[in-house]
């Protein structure tokens, strides 16, 4: 590619950037904060109730809460509401554990037509897979560092 | 040099074929858009009674071809060739439609530019005396395209403002030797153009230079001016791509202030229907042409039309390998009477 074409491409990129509409970061941020916060408040309420009623330790109550939040996320995805929430909330509903549940249930539903083996099971982790791989890998690395640091 | 070729990229048809019938089927969302009343069938359910989105798309292609052939007052057996394409892997919708229709079939892939690619080749077949009747058809389906190119439908993500909405719809046109307007008179075949856009959520911007290149080549080869057209309409550049294309054309000294539009801009009410930058997909220019523009040509409200379907020739593989988006645009001139 000659120099002229590079310049042309560069100029074009700038033109496109100028013409592309900018998202309203403030509005999106407020929505993400509001809905993301609301999900966390719901989680905290459930946690408090479990701790109180079932008389569990703090850590056990946390695990139970996670299970319930995943159930809620999966259920709302299945009923077709989570994508509507996500459209408004963006990262606010992706980051909590309910978003993780959504990222597993959504492809499982979408690819059910390709069967339970090559559809549901094989495609279930197309979005969550990378999160698991890097999440687990980094926790192992941090664990090793922690082990040597303490010994 | 070939007899019918003029300039570098253009063909002037000696016996301009007639488009004797056209038919368009759209999904429910398109049926709520500004062009709704122009479509022959508006589906109530975008699954169309089928088990999958892909089969629904194929059924739309089948039904639109059958209706177009019926309108042309011929039988399916009279059709010599079925030239068709879509966006799905290995042309699932078109090939499955061809399996049902049992017409000799050429499958085309030109991404969203396939409608004018099909019209070009169909016109050449008829003009060359290789066929009496040819059907050109394309289809696309929002949900089928989303699951192939982007994310599952129920995923709670946000679509960027530059993203476009794949049209659910199928259009078919029946071509035969000259028997009154509208006729296809000129064909300009595009080159693959790539200005280095890598954002698959801004395909209008990726395709705009291809549209500009083809329009420029068409005017250069034919000697027409942009003013000689009642309407120059691109396939699916969307709001952003159309703006960029207009700006680039004006810079080239081509006046397109009053007679330039885009099928992807026309098909939806973008703000109310939340389609962001506009419609896209093989079905976009197909249904806008076969439904809306064909009627205007028939009623002689448009006398000379340049239809420039635009295609982004990307694949999920090329995107993940970090390649930019190659684009193409094919133009056909359609005149309401000769």
UniProtKB/TrEMBL annotation, chain A:
This is Stage V sporulation protein AC. The keyword Transmembrane applies. The chain crosses the membrane at residues 29-46, 66-85, 91-109, 121-149. The lineage of its organism: Bacteria, Bacillati, Bacillota, Clostridia, Peptostreptococcales. Keywords: Membrane, Transmembrane, Transmembrane helix. It comes from the Bacteria. InterPro entries: Spore_V_AC, SpoVA. The keyword Membrane applies. PANTHER family: STAGE V SPORULATION PROTEIN AC (PTHR38450:SF1), STAGE V SPORULATION PROTEIN AC-RELATED (PTHR38450).
TrEMBL record, chain B:
It comes from the Bacteria. Signal peptide: none annotated. It holds the Pfam family SpoVAD. InterPro entries: SpoVAD, SpoVAD_sf, Thiolase-like. Transmembrane segments: none annotated. One of its GO terms (molecular function) is acyltransferase activity. This is Stage V sporulation protein AD. It comes from Natronincola peptidivorans. The lineage of its organism: Bacteria, Bacillati, Bacillota, Clostridia, Peptostreptococcales.
């Amino acid at each position: 590619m000659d120099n002229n074409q590079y310049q042309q491409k560069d100029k074009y990129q700038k033109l496109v950037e100028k013409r592309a509409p900018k998202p309203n970061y403030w509005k999106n941020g407020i929505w993400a904060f509001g809905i993301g916060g609301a999900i966390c408040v719901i989680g905290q309420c459930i946690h408090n109730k479990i701790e109180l009623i079932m008389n569990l330790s703090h850590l056990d109550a946390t695990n139970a809460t996670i299970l319930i939040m995943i159930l809620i996320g999966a259920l709302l995805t299945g009923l077709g509401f989570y994508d509507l929430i996500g459209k408004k909330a963006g990262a606010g509903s992706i980051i909590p554990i309910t978003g993780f549940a959504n990222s597993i249930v959504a492809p499982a539903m979408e690819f059910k037509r390709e069967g339970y083996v090559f559809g549901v099971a094989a495609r279930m982790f197309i979005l969550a897979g990378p999160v698991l791989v890097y999440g687990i890998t980094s926790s192992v690395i941090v664990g090793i560092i922690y082990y040597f640091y303490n010994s | 040099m070939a007899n019918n070729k003029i300039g570098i990229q253009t063909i002037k048809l000696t016996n301009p074929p007639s488009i004797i019938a056209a038919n368009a089927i759209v999904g429910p969302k398109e049926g709520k858009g500004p062009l709704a009343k122009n479509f022959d069938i508006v589906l109530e359910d975008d699954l169309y009674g089928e088990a999958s989105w892909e089969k629904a798309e194929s059924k739309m292609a089948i039904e639109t071809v059958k209706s177009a052939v019926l309108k042309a007052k011929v039988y399916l057996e009279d059709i010599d060739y079925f030239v068709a394409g879509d966006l799905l892997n290995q042309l699932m919708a078109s090939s499955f439609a061809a399996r049902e229709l049992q017409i000799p079939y050429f499958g085309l892939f030109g991404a969203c530019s396939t409608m004018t690619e099909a019209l070009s080749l169909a016109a050449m077949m008829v003009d060359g005396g290789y066929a009496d009747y040819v059907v050109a058809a394309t289809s696309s389906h929002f949900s089928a395209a989303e699951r192939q190119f982007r994310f599952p439908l129920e995923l709670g993500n946000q679509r960027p403002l530059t993203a476009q909405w794949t049209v659910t719809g199928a259009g078919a046109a029946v071509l035969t030797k000259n028997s009154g307007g509208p006729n296809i008179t000129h064909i300009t075949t595009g080159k693959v153009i790539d200005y280095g856009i890598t954002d698959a959520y801004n395909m209008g911007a990726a395709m705009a230079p291809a549209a500009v290149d083809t329009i420029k080549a068409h005017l250069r080869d034919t000697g027409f001016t942009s003013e000689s057209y009642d309407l120059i309409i691109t396939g699916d550049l969307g709001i952003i791509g159309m703006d960029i294309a207009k700006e680039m054309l004006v810079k080239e000294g081509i006046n397109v202030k009053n007679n330039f539009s885009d099928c992807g801009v026309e098909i939806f009410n973008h703000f109310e229907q939340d389609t962001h930058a506009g419609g896209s997909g093989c079905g976009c220019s197909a249904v806008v042409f076969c439904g809306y523009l064909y009627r205007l040509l028939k009623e002689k409200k448009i006398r000379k039309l340049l239809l420039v379907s635009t295609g982004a020739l990307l694949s999920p593989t090329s995107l993940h390998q970090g390649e930019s988006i190659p684009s193409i645009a094919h133009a056909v001139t359609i005149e309401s009477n000769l």
